């Protein structure tokens, strides 16, 4: 498949939206990582996302919407706390899991009764969603098991030949996937940590007059997202971890002093 490179200018956004409308796939920038988008209301388009990513079919996709009004179309109902948290952290690196409107977004939900909703803080992403007029189902634009792309060239390297277009936007200023949370009657659960932290969630709840506790999926009672069952973050290079900056500096010095480039490429 030939892949178009598009800019974030309005003419190109219109082209991207019409590709989506015709059940195509478009990679687009967000503030967290690049997303691999499909029309959230087309089961045929969403199916192509799973194929392009080589993603397990039971791992649901987040639906990206432009505002709370659009979010409400995909939710069965938003509780006061859910609407309050969405308003507090959107647009931004924040995904809310809600009970799904049974008539919409079924393919993205991958058989689950819930759906993840997010309003990205990226002008190009918001323009694209508004231009399409519907939600965009989008996982990170990497092939399954590989790191999420945080700039255009990574996204292009992962997805050219597999999608209809890649929008050439700016590098992602967050570079870390969104925080995913779910509200239950008794508490707010963080299913995936991200830039919106537990402390920030607690402060927002206090501000809203809610006394719900926030629990992290690191805790023993909170469930994780389906995606965390699979292999993640597997860069195709060797990685070394250092306990402190001195150890790292010493390893870098050793590399500099090593004139044998083949040995140096394997260390550290
Ligand atoms: O920042 C982000 O969230 C990026 C950008 C593109 O928006 N998207 C992203 O999507 O990271 P993805 O598919 O790579 O990761 C989404 C995670 C997966 O682990 C998936 O299992 C989980 O969210 N998830 C999606 N829908 C869910 C649901 N209904 N219930 C529980 N977990 C869900
Ligand atoms: Mg991902």
Automatic annotation (TrEMBL):
InterPro entries: DHBP_synth_RibB-like_a/b_dom, Sua5-like_dom, Sua5/YwlC_C, Sua5_C, T(6)A37_SUA5, TC-AMP_synthase_SUA5. Gene3D superfamilies: DHBP synthase, Threonylcarbamoyl-AMP synthase, C-terminal domain. The keyword rRNA-binding does not apply. It is found in: Cytoplasm. L-threonine binds at residues 32, 64, 138, 178. Its EC number is 2.7.7.87. Pfam families: Sua5_C (PF03481), Sua5_yciO_yrdC (PF01300). Its main location: cytoplasm. Residues 10-196 form the YrdC-like domain. This is Threonylcarbamoyl-AMP synthase. PROSITE patterns: YRDC. ATP binds at residues 55, 59, 114, 118, 140, 148, 192, 233. Keywords: ATP-binding, Cytoplasm, Nucleotide-binding, Nucleotidyltransferase, Transferase, tRNA processing. It is an enzyme of class 2 (transferase). Belongs to the SUA5 family. GO terms for molecular function: ATP binding; double-stranded RNA binding; L-threonylcarbamoyladenylate synthase; tRNA binding. GO terms for biological process: regulation of translational fidelity; tRNA processing. It comes from Salinispira pacifica. It comes from the Bacteria. It catalyses: L-threonine + hydrogencarbonate + ATP = L-threonylcarbamoyladenylate + diphosphate + H2O. GO terms for cellular component: cytoplasm.
């Amino acid at each position: 498949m030939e892949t178009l490179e598009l800019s974030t200018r309005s003419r190109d956004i219109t082209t991207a939206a019409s590709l989506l409308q015709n059940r195509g796939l478009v990679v687009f920038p967000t503030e967290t990582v690049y997303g691999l988008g499909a029309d959230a209301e087309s089961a045929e388009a969403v199916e192509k996302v799973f194929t392009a990513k080589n993603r397990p079919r039971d791992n649901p996709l987040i639906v990206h919407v432009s505002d709370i009004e659009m979010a409400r179309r995909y939710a069965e109902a938003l509780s006061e706390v859910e609407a309050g948290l969405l308003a507090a952290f959107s647009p931004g690196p924040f995904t809310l899991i809600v009970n799904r409107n049974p008539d919409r977004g079924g393919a993205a939900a991958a058989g689950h009764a819930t759906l993840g909703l997010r309003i990205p803080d990226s002008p190009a992403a918001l323009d694209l969603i508004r231009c399409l007029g519907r939600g965009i189902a989008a996982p990170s634009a990497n092939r399954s098991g590989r790191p999420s792309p945080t700039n255009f060239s990574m996204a292009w390297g992962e997805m050219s030949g597999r999608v209809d277009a890649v929008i050439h936007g700016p590098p992602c200023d967050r570079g870390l996937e969104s925080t995913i949370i779910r509200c239950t009657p008794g508490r707010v659960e963080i299913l995936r940590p991200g830039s919106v932290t537990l402390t920030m969630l607690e402060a927002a709840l206090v501000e809203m007059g809610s006394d719900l506790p926030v629990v992290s999926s690191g805790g023993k009672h909170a469930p994780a997202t389906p995606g965390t069952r699979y292999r993640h973050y597997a860069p195709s290079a060797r990685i070394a971890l250092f306990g402190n900056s001195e150890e790292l500096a010493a390893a870098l010095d050793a590399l500099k002093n090593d004139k044998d480039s083949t040995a140096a490429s394997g260390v550290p």
